[in-house]
């Protein structure tokens, strides 16, 4: 029988106090995994712990800025001390800055690259040695539509997420022989705090133009929810995907396949 169970596994999901990371971690717990997560601020870790407790999940939360290699090393050591070797890593923590490229400061560009691309490198580098020692593991990088497409104002984010797709493929290539599978999930447009500015009601009460645009670009004719990502994440974290490596699984309601609804 195909095995989607995560019983006995330890999963680290970065930036998982809320949003997509929280949903993925919750799905992993429901499949039997022990959950570790981090956030930058203690108050958000505490908020996350309360949210996990409300769902009956005994998660471990840690304060860690994933762009800081010293903090990441300490995070991995703490998780391994508290829960044991990390079997599943989800590089979920991410930021976006929506600024026209010619107006974006180089420092702002660097900040996005740092969190969305450098950090998955740093955290994966910290976890891979113990995965090798323990006979393998799963790394899931949260990519994006912008791993494939561009749009106005998201140059740094698209560059980072495009790079993250290739980092995913390279980890798969370099460490596949150690039974480590590294894949990506490419969410479409998901209703979370990160996309809230694109969905907020206009002063006249009408829908945000981007909201209507995305619904017209999505065959499913709706924004995704974090629940839509749970099954794909459990699949890529489980032994059901042991021969899937270097793949980005787009969970986008069909956006990448669709030219978009014709104007009526
Ligand atoms: P979100 O609601 O903004 O949550 C992002 C999380 O990452 C927050 O908990 C945030 O913590 C944390 N984080 C940011 N910088 C960090 C750092 N340096 N160290 C540790 N944690 C950090 O975002 P989301 O919508 O859930 O997205 C999660 C991931 O999915 C991101 O990688 C995003 O790019 C990707 N994604 C999102 C969508 C979408 O439509 N929402 C679609 C495709 C891909 P703080 O609150 O403390 O900043
Ligand atoms: C944006 C959105 C997107 C989503 C996601 C799509 O401004 O276009 O924030 O980037 O977050 O990455 O897959």
TrEMBL record:
CDD domains the record matches: Ga5DH-like_SDR_c (cd05347)
Family (UniProt): Belongs to the short-chain dehydrogenases/reductases (SDR) family.
Pfam families on file: adh_short_C2
Superkingdom, taxonomy of origin: Bacteria
Its EC number(s): 1.1.1.69
Family annotation (Gene3D superfamilies): NAD(P)-binding Rossmann-like Domain
Gene Ontology MF: a single term: gluconate 5-dehydrogenase activity
Protein name: Gluconate 5-dehydrogenase
Classification via InterPro entries: NAD(P)-bd_dom_sf, Sc_DH/Rdtase_CS, SDR_fam
Keyword Cell membrane part of the UniProt annotation: no
UniProt keyword Oxidoreductase, yes or no: yes
Record SUPFAM superfamilies: NAD(P)-binding Rossmann-fold domains (SSF51735)
Keywords annotated in UniProt: Oxidoreductase
């Amino acid at each position: 029988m195909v095995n989607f169970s995560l019983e006995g596994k330890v999963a680290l999901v970065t930036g998982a106090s809320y949003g997509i990371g929280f949903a993925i971690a919750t799905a992993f717990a429901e499949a039997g995994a022990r959950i570790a997560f981090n956030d930058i601020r203690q108050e958000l870790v505490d908020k996350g712990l309360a949210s996990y407790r409300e769902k009956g999940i005994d998660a471990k939360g840690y304060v860690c800025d994933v762009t800081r290699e010293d903090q990441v090393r300490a995070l991995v050591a703490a998780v391994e001390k508290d829960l044991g070797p990390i079997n599943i890593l989800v590089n979920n923590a991410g930021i976006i800055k929506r600024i026209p490229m010619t107006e974006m400061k180089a420092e702002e560009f660097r900040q996005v690259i740092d969190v969305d691309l450098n950090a998955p490198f740093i955290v994966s580098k910290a976890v891979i040695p113990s995965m090798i020692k323990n006979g393998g593991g799963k790394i899931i990088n949260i990519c994006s539509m912008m791993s494939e497409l561009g749009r106005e104002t998201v140059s740094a984010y698209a560059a980072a997420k495009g790079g993250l797709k290739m980092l995913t493929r390279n980890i798969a290539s370099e460490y596949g022989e150690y039974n480590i599978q590294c894949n990506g999930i490419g969410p479409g447009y998901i209703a979370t705090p990160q996309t809230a500015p694109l969905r907020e009601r206009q002063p006249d009460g009408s829908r945000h133009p981007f909201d209507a645009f995305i619904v017209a670009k999505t065959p499913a004719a709706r924004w995704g929810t974090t629940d839509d990502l749970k099954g794909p994440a459990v699949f890529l974290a489980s032994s059901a995907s042991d021969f899937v490596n270097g793949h980005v699984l787009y969970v986008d309601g069909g956006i990448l396949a669709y030219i978009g609804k014709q104007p009526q």
